[in-house]
Fold each of these.
Amino acid sequence: MAKLPVGFRFGIYQSKARRSCVPLQSADEEDVNKKVVVITGSNSGIGKEAATQFVKRGATVVMCNRDANKTAKAVDAIKLDIPNASLVMPSKNYSVPKS
């Protein structure tokens, strides 16, 4: 097989359709004030950072995680940085029961 650019091999090389796409707004430009954002896995790592960034920009964040204790700790940590953070922690347990 001849060496082709990576995009050609996967069928995503620049095409007419791609050139005509409207660029998306960056995350910093999108208005999320007064919107509700649901994030799973938001008690640590990138999920927690995403929750923090959405709260900073005025969104209400629903934190759906498997471990309620870890979620409570994450909520406390975010509220230390952002006291007026609008965070919701559902009471449902999202873990998968052992069979």
Amino acid sequence: MVDVTMSMDEYLSLLGGMAMNDAPAAPEPMAAPKKKRSSAYSRRYKANFKKISSRYKMKSGRWKKNGFKNAVKEAHRLSRTTKKGMVRKTARRAFEKK
């Protein structure tokens, strides 16, 4: 083993360089990743489902028999219709073939 001898001044100067407020700083938290924007179809579906779900529920708030399934089916049916500014793919293809 190696003997290391230090004077009191050397020891205090060493301790002075290691002050508690000089401790390494904690790493900064990473920014949360950017969330993906939902598609126009899913936004329409969400609005339609909220609008019609009450028709398929009882007064207590429970779903009627096959109510959820029927509500989903109707919300999809309402959501897939063409809206202002939208062009159906089939109509576009028919127009291009001419």
